[in-house]
Task: inverse folding
């Protein structure tokens, strides 16, 4: 039921059996990993809300036999669905979103409906609830846009480069307004290129690491958009789960906060492909194609704020994460 390679470290001090949790997008990659951590640590109730448009029921299927697990198939764009899902919940992990920069360029309206309207529905129902004690939501490093400074620091952002980036920045703006107007404080976690178990390569908008791994295992060349010197701060999913759990319980929280969640190292796509080749004993050259619109050239996080305020200490490097995936 649980992955023996993951979550052998406890990231909380509280008795989770006394609390109830809602994970939106809980059948997705990151959401299902958060669900696994909570169930593994005897949470009182873990409720998942997911419309299965990009998530996979198989990610949570083994949990359905547990008495402290509930699944609601529903859409965050439906306000009544959100109200029903939040009822009696103490902590919300909002992971539901329509990801991918290329997809947002093709369909900006749908991206906005899910990521902006859906987020506002969750935010509003959480603020109105008497039971909710904390809302932690998935923000994005795409918010840094065209700001060229490295490493990325939370209070220095540029102009968004895609409709997806716009929606994730709007989430932060709404969270800040709700903090000032309603005294409802939230935490946004700006993820940097998360990878790990339960991340599918099958979507047309799949992330680079599962695509590279599938290509390598099939002894095929990886497709790299651009010259391959594009760099990313690849972040193993257990580091992200750690941040979510610590953000749920950190106190005091007097304002809406955002934190970079990453490992703090940059790796080029060329280097990533070489590492995967090395782990699998291969020597396959990649294929290069034209750089995609909306892609940020370089990304590297300053994680000192998360370390200082959340006690976030990422323990899985890119290499360690790849060994788990390829082992």
Result:
């Amino acid at each position: 039921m649980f992955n023996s390679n993951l979550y052998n470290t406890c990231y909380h001090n509280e008795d989770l059996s006394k609390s109830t949790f809602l994970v939106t997008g809980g059948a997705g990659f990151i959401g299902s990993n958060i669900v696994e951590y909570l169930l593994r640590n005897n949470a009182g109730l873990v409720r998942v809300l997911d419309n299965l448009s990009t998530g996979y029921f198989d990610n949570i299927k083994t949990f359905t036999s547990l008495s402290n697990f509930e699944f609601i198939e529903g859409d965050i764009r439906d306000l009544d669905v959100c109200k029903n899902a939040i009822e009696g919940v103490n902590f919300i992990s909002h992971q539901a979103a329509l990801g991918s920069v290329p997809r947002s360029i093709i369909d900006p309206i749908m991206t906005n409906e899910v990521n902006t309207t859906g987020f506002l529905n969750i935010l509003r129902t959480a603020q109105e609830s008497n039971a909710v004690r904390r809302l932690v939501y998935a923000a994005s490093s795409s918010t840094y846009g065209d700001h060229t400074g490295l490493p990325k620091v939370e209070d220095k952002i540029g102009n968004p480069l895609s409709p997806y980036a716009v929606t994730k920045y709007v989430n932060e703006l709404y969270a800040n307004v709700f903090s000032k107007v309603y005294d409802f404080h939230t935490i946004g976690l700006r993820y940097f290129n998360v990878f790990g178990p339960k991340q599918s390569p099958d979507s047309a908008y799949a992330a680079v690491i599962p695509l590279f791994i599938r290509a390598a295992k099939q002894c095929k060349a990886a497709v790299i958009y651009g010259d391959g010197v594009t760099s990313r701060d690849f972040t193993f999913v257990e580091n992200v789960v750690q941040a979510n759990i610590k953000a749920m319980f950190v106190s005091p929280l007097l304002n809406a906060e955002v934190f970079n969640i990453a490992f703090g190292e940059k790796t080029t796509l060329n280097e990533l492909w070489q590492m995967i080749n090395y782990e699998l004993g291969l020597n396959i050259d990649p294929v290069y194609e034209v750089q995609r619109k909306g892609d940020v050239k370089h990304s590297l996080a300053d994680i000192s704020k998360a370390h200082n305020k959340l006690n976030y200490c990422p323990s899985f490097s890119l290499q360690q994460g790849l060994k788990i995936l390829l082992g």
Summary: The CA atoms of residues 29 and 199 lie 5 Å apart. The two ends are 18 Å apart (CA to CA). The mean pLDDT is 96. Residues 108-128 form the longest helix (21 residues).
